[in-house]
């Protein structure tokens, strides 16, 4: 091992149980199973004339669960384990209201020097994955880190984030963490 | 034959391969080998290097070419001696080695000669002076000597081994090393190497670890793994290596990383059993330290796996039999692991569990020991945990150990069993207790399920009562647990149990599941109950595939459907949510039927013979529901009566599918009988044979008669279901197939009420024509001709009739195009012709162009018969015509051809597109701007399959790279929702997934200009109203961000 790890034996958690946030389907999808709706043969709309089917369905807003889905499979910079398994991000700590997204992250240990890097990874992911109309706040969950304030300041300062991303090495580390982001819990 | 002349010509022209007729002459005995040697005489002894070399080469090549039987003992001896004398001649060495290799394989080549040759080489050849190819020849010769004359070389004793190790020392070429490693291994295994082991150590271990990386496009194809495996076999060839090898391994622990560390661990795993317990024991704990580090701290799972196999090998070497008391190292390891497990929620605890499991697998005595040490502590921790959250990882550890036990005891390879080792016996009750508690407790269910599944599979461990106990616990989770992640695990576990104990599942699980299915659908707003019945159904779908459980499923589901159909005529209840109670019941019935269909399809796929037995139980019952519903309302319809449930077309359609699946499985005799009954019902109105309870059905005539109600006409779907399931050689209940077909065509065009009915009767027509091609052969042309002139060409008829006519026409063409019937192409010609009339008859022509999508469906999932290459033939016929038409047309007229092209695209396999890419790519690219989203989707899907099909062809690569900028531009238009351009979620998702392929296959320099534009445009897609589109957009954008960044 080339470098002493901050936390060489972190706690691993089982995947979060998502019952509390289970979305309730709206419209047709609430009553009919996916199979029934996807299979054209059964033609839900019996009066349609073949072409031009699949009209626009209801608007599905971006919710906390979707944001969590974007973040859960990002890899921890120190271990080949997802942030979900380390409970660094939790579904309950993500809040979406209007055009604002607020994410609290929980470092595995109070002196974790990786918190900023993790926060930066989260920010980059959301910067790339959320529409520009959203304003994203990323904060350390209160009382979980020694230098909470400093980290918060760094993560939410546009210029500092920009400067960090111009550092080639740092960007590569972040890209490495983001490689697994598309797994989305699977 | 003038041998000297032939030889002279050959040598003087430097043509050093013997001519074929010379070889044949030797083989036939007409020319002696000696004659060639004589003829070569002056060359072989020439003082000029080049001449001598040519002579020798010619001789060796002749030896290689002639039949070995023609080289007699004397010749062998003479030639061998001659070649030996040439070994000290630098230039002559390669041909001499070639000749000797041929000779050494002969039966006339004796042991003495072998020793002579070997000595000749080691005394005269300075290996370092020669190039790789020559050295390779030396090794090939060694290999050949060793294969045939091993004992002779063995008897040379020390001198052989000394000289051998000197000869091969310092070899570096991978091609030579591959050969050397295999020779080394033979010597190490068979020769007395004990006293020379240091020399051997030097010539083998010096290569470890191998860091070779093959150059790009390596023509020899030797990979690093080939070398590693060959070397590893060498290193694990002799127990005498132990003294030097183990210290080397220990030293390497500290310095190696990555793939080399993995190599080290695997090498240790291979070597330790050979080196033996005694040698290993001395350094055992040091080896353990090195292995442990990689298990506990490595972030690379492949290294961890290698380290675990090294550990298994270590333990197996130290404690090979049950009699070897697990003292010493095993005790230390277990102690360390249990200490780590005191903090069971940490990452290292998972590693410690893996270590314990590996020890169990490795040795019987150590395995029993770790069980006796670990389980009591784990039970204690589980029952009084220091922190409540520790219980889940503790149970996980217990279950992982049980899985390890199961993997050993239920394996047919291992000799170990629970009966014999009794390792779990002392903990029987405690295991059951913790698992039962786990099944009951939130957060512990998943590990408990894993443990239960393992225990059930350990032979002779759990008795019936234990299994029943656990099944009850699992059932409870299945019914009551809301967590979507747990249920699949329970189902998997129950399915596994059902293969070992089917009766327990049948008597415990099934009744409970059925009991929990409601009798009528929950209201629209009651999502929780709906989720619950869906989850029960999905469980049943998996469990009831087994023959023993299938009949229960049929009975229960048909009973539920009966109940639903009768309850629906009650007074309408309070309306709740968006949908009324009828709609809810329809959705519920659909789910029930869909489950039944899924199980039937699965059983058919797995070739269960019992499924067809049940056709008489299933189809008539379902028919009864539908037929009684469609006929009852016509008789006395009161105002407040609710429409009967099974009048719903979605239910009729799925019942039709079930019928098709089951009918298809029947034998031709049974099919014939069944079809006769159906025919009587639909044509004559006699329903007696196809429904279950006659009394429920009013006495009505054929649903196809004139004056039938629309509801009755809907029954056409059931008719179509049966016809689609018929085979080609089933006897028909009528004499004229053509007449039958004509009546169906007439019904479709003139009687059917709407597109739903038309669709089903088109399916019927298509299937019938496809299966009865031979019977219809003579009349098809007339039938098609009359449809064309009477229905399609006649512009005085209304548009709908003409459209239906064309649909029938195209479906018949499709049916015979699948069989590559020539008529289909001439018939299609007419359709292509009318595409040119777009300015005269715009609506109809547009319809005809998109009508090509009928042909594009191909065989699909249907039971239609399709001949090989039907798609290619149709495509090759249509494409040139469309291209020609496109060229002649102008303005909007061209659009029609493009529409037809895009509609037909799904038919074409990617390989066909690639073969003719230059012609196909331009219209595909133009199709990307068609207004209809479906046609754009077709074009993009084809593009995806072109891009994804790996192709070495330079032309394909060039064509793609040339056009990629246009592709990106058009795709970006399809991902965005904009006023004026019709779109669909499907086209947006397809376009996004196509865009995300580019970063993988297009060289960055081509697209780097577009990166920022693509990323900006994709940003808009992130705000798509649909979640699935957004998801695709996010990952596509992430890929484009990475594009061009070397990570």
Automatic annotation (TrEMBL), chain A:
Q: Which UniProt keywords apply?
A: Chromosome partition
What is any Pfam family matched here?
A: FeS_assembly_P
Q: List, alphabetically, the SUPFAM superfamilies matched.
A: Fe-S cluster assembly (FSCA) domain-like
Gene Ontology process terms (BP): chromosome segregation; protein maturation
Q: Which family does it belong to?
A: Belongs to the MIP18 family.
Among InterPro entries, the record links this protein to:
FSCA_dom_sf (IPR034904), MIP18 (IPR039796), MIP18-like (IPR002744)
Which superkingdom heads the taxonomic lineage of this protein's source? Eukaryota
Q: Residue ranges of the MIP18 family-like domain?
A: 65-136
Write the protein's name. MIP18 family-like domain-containing protein
From TrEMBL, chain B:
Q: Where is the MMS19 C-terminal domain?
A: 536-999
GO terms in the biological process aspect are: DNA repair; iron-sulfur cluster assembly; protein maturation
Would I find RNA-binding among this entry's keywords? no
Where this protein primarily resides, as one coarse class?
A: nucleus
Q: Name one Pfam family in it.
A: MMS19_C
Localization, per the record, is: Nucleus
One GO cellular component, as annotated: nucleus
Keyword Chaperone listed: no
Instruction: Return the InterPro entries for the record.
Output: ARM-like (IPR011989), ARM-type_fold (IPR016024), MMS19 (IPR039920), MMS19_C (IPR024687), MMS19_N (IPR029240)
Q: Which residues form the MMS19 N-terminal domain?
A: 37-296
* The entry's keywords: DNA damage, DNA repair, Nucleus, Repeat
Gene3D superfamilies documented for this protein: Leucine-rich Repeat Variant
- Specify the superkingdom: Eukaryota
Q: Which PANTHER family match?
A: DNA REPAIR/TRANSCRIPTION PROTEIN MET18/MMS19, MMS19 NUCLEOTIDE EXCISION REPAIR PROTEIN HOMOLOG
Function description: Key component of the cytosolic iron-sulfur protein assembly (CIA) complex, a multiprotein complex that mediates the incorporation of iron-sulfur cluster into apoproteins specifically involved in DNA metabolism and genomic integrity. In the CIA complex, MMS19 acts as an adapter between early-acting CIA components and a subset of cellular target iron-sulfur proteins.
Q: Which family does it belong to?
A: Belongs to the MET18/MMS19 family.
Q: What name appears for this protein in its UniProt entry?
A: MMS19 nucleotide excision repair protein
């Amino acid at each position: 091992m080339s470098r002493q790890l901050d936390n060489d034996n972190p706690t691993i958690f089982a995947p979060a149980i998502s019952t509390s946030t289970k979305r309730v389907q709206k419209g047709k999808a609430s009553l009919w199973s996916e199979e029934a709706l996807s299979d054209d043969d059964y033609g839900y709309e019996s009066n349609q004339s073949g072409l031009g089917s699949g009209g626009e369905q209801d608007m599905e807003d971006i919710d906390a669960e979707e944001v969590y889905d974007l973040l859960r499979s990002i890899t921890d910079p120190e271990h080949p384990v997802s942030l979900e398994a380390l409970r660094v991000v939790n579904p309950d700590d993500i809040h979406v209201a209007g055009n604002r997204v607020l994410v609290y992250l929980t470092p595995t240990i109070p002196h974790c020097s990786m918190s900023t890097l993790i926060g930066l990874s989260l920010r980059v992911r959301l910067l790339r994955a959320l529409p520009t109309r959203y304003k994203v706040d990323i904060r350390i969950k209160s009382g979980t880190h020694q230098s909470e304030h400093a980290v918060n300041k760094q993560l939410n300062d546009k210029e500092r984030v920009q400067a960090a991303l111009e550092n080639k090495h740092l960007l590569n580390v972040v890209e490495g963490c983001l490689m697994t982001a598309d797994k989305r819990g699977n | 034959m003038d041998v000297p002349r032939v030889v002279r010509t050959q040598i003087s022209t430097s043509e050093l391969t013997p001519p074929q007729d010379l070889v044949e002459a030797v083989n036939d005995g007409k020319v002696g080998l000696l004659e060639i040697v004589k003829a070569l005489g002056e060359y072989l002894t020439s003082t000029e290097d080049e001449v001598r070399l040519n002579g020798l080469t010619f001789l060796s090549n002749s030896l290689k070419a002639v039949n070995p039987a023609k080289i007699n003992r004397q010749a062998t001896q003479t030639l061998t001696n001659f070649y030996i004398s040439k070994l000290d001649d630098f230039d002559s060495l390669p041909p001499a080695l070639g000749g000797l290799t041929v000779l050494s394989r002969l039966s006339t080549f004796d042991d003495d000669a072998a020793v002579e040759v070997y000595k000749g080489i080691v005394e005269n050849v300075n290996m370092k002076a020669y190039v790789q190819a020559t050295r390779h020849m030396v090794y090939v010769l060694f290999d050949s000597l060793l294969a045939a004359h091993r004992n002779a070389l063995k008897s040379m004793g020390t001198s052989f081994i000394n000289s051998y190790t000197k000869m091969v020392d310092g070899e570096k070429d991978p091609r030579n090393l591959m050969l050397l490693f295999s020779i080394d291994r033979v010597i190490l295994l068979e020769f007395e190497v004990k006293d020379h082991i240091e020399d051997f150590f030097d010539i083998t271990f010096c290569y470890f670890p191998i860091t070779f990386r093959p150059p790009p496009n390596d023509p020899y194809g030797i990979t690093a793994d080939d070398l590693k495996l060959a070397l590893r076999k060498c290193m694990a060839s002799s127990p005498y290596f132990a003294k030097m090898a183990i210290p080397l391994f220990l030293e390497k622990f500290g310095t190696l990383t990555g793939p080399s560390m993995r190599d080290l661990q695997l090498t240790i795993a291979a070597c330790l059993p050979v080196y033996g317990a005694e040698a290993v024991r001395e350094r055992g704990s040091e080896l353990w330290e090195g292995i442990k580090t990689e298990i506990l701290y490595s972030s690379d799972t492949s290294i961890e796996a290698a380290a675990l196999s090294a550990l298994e090998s270590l333990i197996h070497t130290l404690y090979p039999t049950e009699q070897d008391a697990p003292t010493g190292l095993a005790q230390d390891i277990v102690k360390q692991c249990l200490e780590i497990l005191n903090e069971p929620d940490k990452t290292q605890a998972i590693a410690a569990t893996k270590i314990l499991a590996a020890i169990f697998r490795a040795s019987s005595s150590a395995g029993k020991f770790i069980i006796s040490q670990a389980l009591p502590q784990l039970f204690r921790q589980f029952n009084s945990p220091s922190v409540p959250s520790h219980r889940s990882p503790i149970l996980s550890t217990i279950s992982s150990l049980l899985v390890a036990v199961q993997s050993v005891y239920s394996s047919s390879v291992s000799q170990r069993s629970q009966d014999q080792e009794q390792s779990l016996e002392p903990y029987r009750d405690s295991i059951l207790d913790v698992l039962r508690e786990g099944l009951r407790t939130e957060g512990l269910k998943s590990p408990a399920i894993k443990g239960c599944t393992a225990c059930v599979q350990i032979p002779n461990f759990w008795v019936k009562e234990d299994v029943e106990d656990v099944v009850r616990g699992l059932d409870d989770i299945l019914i009551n647990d809301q967590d979507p992640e747990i249920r699949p695990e329970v189902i998997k576990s129950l399915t596994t149990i059902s293969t070992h104990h089917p009766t327990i599942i049948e008597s415990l699980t099934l009744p409970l599941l059925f009991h929990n299915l409601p009798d009528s659908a929950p209201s629209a707003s009651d999502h929780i109950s709906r989720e619950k019945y869906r989850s029960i159904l999905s469980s049943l779908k998996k469990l009831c595939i087994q023959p023993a459980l299938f009949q229960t499923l049929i009975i229960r589901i048909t009973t539920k459907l009966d109940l639903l159909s009768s309850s629906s005529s009650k007074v309408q209840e309070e309306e709740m949510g968006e949908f009324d109670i009828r709609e809810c019941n329809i959705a519920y019935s659909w789910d029930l039927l869909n489950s039944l269909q899924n199980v039937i399809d699965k059983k058919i796929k797995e070739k269960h013979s019992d499924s067809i037995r049940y056709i008489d139980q299933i189809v008539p019952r379902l028919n009864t529901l539908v037929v009684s519903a469609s006929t009852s309302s016509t008789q006395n319809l009161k105002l407040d009566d609710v429409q009967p449930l099974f009048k719903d077309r979605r239910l009729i359609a799925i019942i039709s599918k079930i019928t098709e699946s089951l009918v298809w499985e029947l034998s031709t005799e049974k099919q014939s009988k069944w079809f006769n009954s159906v025919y009587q019902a639909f044509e004559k109105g006699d329903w007696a044979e196809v429904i279950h309870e006659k009394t429920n059905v009013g006495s009505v005539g054929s649903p196809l008669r004139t004056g039938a109600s629309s509801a009755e006409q809907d029954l056409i779907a059931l008719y179509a279901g049966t016809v689609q399931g018929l085979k080609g050689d089933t006897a028909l209940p009528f004499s004229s197939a053509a007449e039958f077909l004509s009546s169906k065509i007439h019904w479709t065009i003139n009687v059917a009420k709407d597109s739903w009915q038309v669709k089903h009767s088109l399916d019927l027509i298509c299937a019938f024509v496809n299966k009865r091609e031979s019977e219809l052969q003579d009349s098809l042309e007339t039938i098609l001709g009359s449809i064309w002139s009477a229905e399609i060409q006649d512009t005085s008829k209304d548009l709908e009739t003409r459209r239906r006519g064309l649909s029938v026409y195209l479906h018949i063409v499709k049916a015979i195009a699948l069989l590559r019937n020539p008529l289909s192409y001439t018939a299609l010609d007419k359709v292509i012709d009318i595409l040119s009339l777009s300015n005269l008859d715009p609506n109809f022509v547009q319809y005809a162009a998109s009508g090509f999508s009928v042909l594009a469906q191909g065989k699909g999932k249907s039971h239609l018969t399709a001949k090989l290459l039907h798609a290619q033939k149709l495509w090759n016929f249509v494409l040139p015509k469309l291209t020609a038409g496109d060229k002649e047309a102008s303005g909007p007229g061209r659009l029609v051809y493009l529409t037809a092209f895009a509609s037909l695209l799904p038919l074409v396999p990617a390989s066909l597109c690639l073969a003719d890419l230059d012609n196909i790519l331009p219209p595909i690219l133009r199709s990307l701007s068609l207004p209809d989203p479906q046609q754009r989707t077709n074009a993009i899907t084809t593009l995806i399959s072109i891009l994804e099909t790996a192709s070495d062809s330079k032309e394909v690569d060039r064509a793609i790279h040339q056009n990629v900028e246009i592709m990106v531009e058009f795709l970006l238009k399809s991902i965005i929702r904009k006023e004026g351009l019709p779109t669909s979620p499907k086209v947006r998702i397809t376009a996004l997934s196509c865009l995300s392929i580019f970063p993988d296959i297009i060289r960055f320099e081509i697209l780097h200009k577009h990166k920022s534009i693509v990323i900006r445009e994709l940003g808009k897609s992130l705000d798509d109203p649909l979640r699935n589109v957004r998801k695709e957009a996010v990952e596509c954008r992430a890929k484009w961000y990475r594009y061009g960044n070397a990570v």
